[in-house]
Design brief:
The protein has 2 domains: 173 residues, no CATH class; 141 residues, Oxidoreductase, molybdopterin-binding domain (Sulfite Oxidase, Chain A, domain 2), CATH 3.90.420.10. 40% of the residues lie in helices and 19% in strands. The strands form 2 sheets. Strands 1, 4, 5, 8, 9 and 10 form a 6-stranded mixed beta sheet that branches. It has a 5-stranded mixed beta sheet with strand order 3-2-11-6-7. It has 339 residues and is an alpha+beta fold. The longest helix is centred in the middle third of the chain and has 28 residues.
Length: 339
């Protein structure tokens, strides 16, 4: 007996669920820097693999759609292209292909293509809505859905196993998906910024302004450098790399005194970039002047940079010029910097 073909409606719905899952988990994974986030990253990988599993039946649907010569065919083709780029760059990054030409990383390409795909998926859902039927919530549909997830999980496990057997660079990546670059070798760490931030030119003031319970004051960098507090922490950049280093400077608990009403600490760079952190995090934060046994380089944040253990790289503010306690809650900011 030949099994009945899966309706295109069900295939499209399954793809939509997987794309939505991949976008949500990808966004969460982009911000998580601690080990409990591993399950989010694994879910993201399996959702992406599920898209590959469903690519054969979707291919038949695409060919039928293109034959209809719809006016919106160009947008559909663009969606297909961006999804292919998203999946290809994600797999390439996992396999260990960290940096491509023109200074871009596979992770940067993956994220950019995913954002573009998300917008086009929203258009596709609005322009060509799938009308569910009562029979869609059947035992057969549930079995088919479980089969897709099982196949995706099996392919993902097989791929990870192949990376380990072949001893590829991808086998040693961190739970966030980042690759080790420059651990205990600070000079090898890439110089990266968030979006339009740039390494400042010219000389920088060797002081940091602190505004807290003791009022406003200027603390010399030389005084911070002589404190000698040390912390070993991992800088995990959303560009797809990480490095574990020994950082030296002064704990923010020594520098900042919070008022009873303060709920957050605002750290500002000379470039205007800033992040708001929970005031409870003060004991864990370090204002670094050195990495390893050497002073920070300009590209890595000299004369002062924030070290925020357990947080992704965009929290590690470079070229710090101001520390300010604030009564506003730490979540009163975009989850990711807008500039």
């Amino acid at each position: 007996m030949v099994a009945a073909p899966v309706p295109a409606r069900l295939t499209n719905t399954a793809l939509l669920v997987l794309v939505a899952t991949a976008l949500v988990t990808g966004t969460l994974a982009f911000g998580l820097g601690t080990a409990p986030g591993r399950i989010v990253v694994v879910t993201h990988a399996i959702a992406g693999t599920g898209l590959l599993v469903l690519s054969p039946p979707k291919g038949h649907i695409v060919r039928r759609g293109l034959a209809r010569q719809r006016s919106s065919r160009g947008v559909s083709i663009a969606l297909l292209v961006f999804l292919v780029v998203t999946l290809t760059s994600g797999f390439a990054h996992a396999a260990g292909m960290w940096r491509l030409m023109f200074g871009l990383t596979t992770m940067q390409i993956h994220v950019a293509a995913a954002i573009a795909s998300g917008g086009l998926v929203v258009w596709h859902v609005i322009a060509r809505p799938q009308v569910p039927r009562p029979t869609d919530l059947s035992r057969r549909s549930a079995v088919r859905g479980g089969g897709v997830l099982a196949a995706a999980g099996a392919v993902w496990l097989a791929t990870e196993g192949a990376f380990s057997i072949a001893r590829t660079r991808g086998a040693a990546r961190r739970f966030t998906g980042s690759h080790a670059i420059g651990t205990d070798e600070p000079a090898r760490m890439p110089v990266t910024q968030w979006f339009d931030d740039a390494v400042p030119d010219g000389s920088l003031d060797a002081v940091v302004t602190v505004r807290d319970a003791r009022g406003a004051r200027r603390v010399p960098v030389a005084d911070i450098d002589t404190v000698g507090d040390r912390v070993r922490a991992t800088l995990d950049c959303t560009g797809g790399w990480y490095a574990t280093q020994d950082w030296r400077g002064a704990s923010l608990q020594r520098i900042v005194e919070a008022r009873p009403e303060d709920r957050s600490l605002v750290v500002t760079s000379v470039t205007g970039y800033q992040r708001r952190l929970p005031i409870e995090a003060l004991p864990a934060l370090l204002l670094a002047t050195r990495v390893g046994d050497a002073p920070l380089s300009r590209g890595h944040g000299a004369p002062l940079r924030l070290v925020a253990p357990g947080r992704r790289g965009f929290w590690w503010v470079k070229w710090v010029v101001e520390l300010r306690t604030d009564a506003a809650p730490p979540w009163q900011q975009p989850p990711f910097p807008l500039t």
